[in-house]
Amino acid sequence: MTYYQILDEFMKRDFPEFLIQKRTRRPPKNPMNSLLSYLNSLLYVTIIEQLRQTPLHPTISYLHSTKVKRLSLALDISEIFKPVIVDRLILRMITLRMLDHTCFEERDKGCFLTTIGKQKVIKEYQRKLNSTFFHRQKNKIFSYLQLIRHECTKLVQHFSQQKSYQSFRIWW
Q: For this protein, what is any one GO molecular function term (predicted)?
């Protein structure tokens, strides 16, 4: 079973309006695809902001193909944080019923967040980025935003041959 099929199995009984059915973009075809696309883009911008504070060049990547005007390194790093930040945030907002039909609108052959929906998502996204947890390996408290910055720093250390890169792995 694919990741999105498992997600649909979870949502099917209590939240059928949030089934993904099939991952669609440009435009997203339903509320779940709309949430995924919007939050992925917020995460992407956050990572770009953190990359710009390092000497790393955001167009040079190791996982995604490099294309003109594409900051592929941010896409690479986002793969680490999508399950940790985006997916968990979506599940939290849905299961706590923070989103409803007023948060989405059908237009231009797609489904998009309304202004109210965007405001709710951004507020929760910021709350998530600023929330903290105890990092076992570093033996200190990190916010999720600091964790993203730390991941960028680890890549800098790797490329400058100071330390071998070990990707962040969730332990909880």
A: hydrolase activity
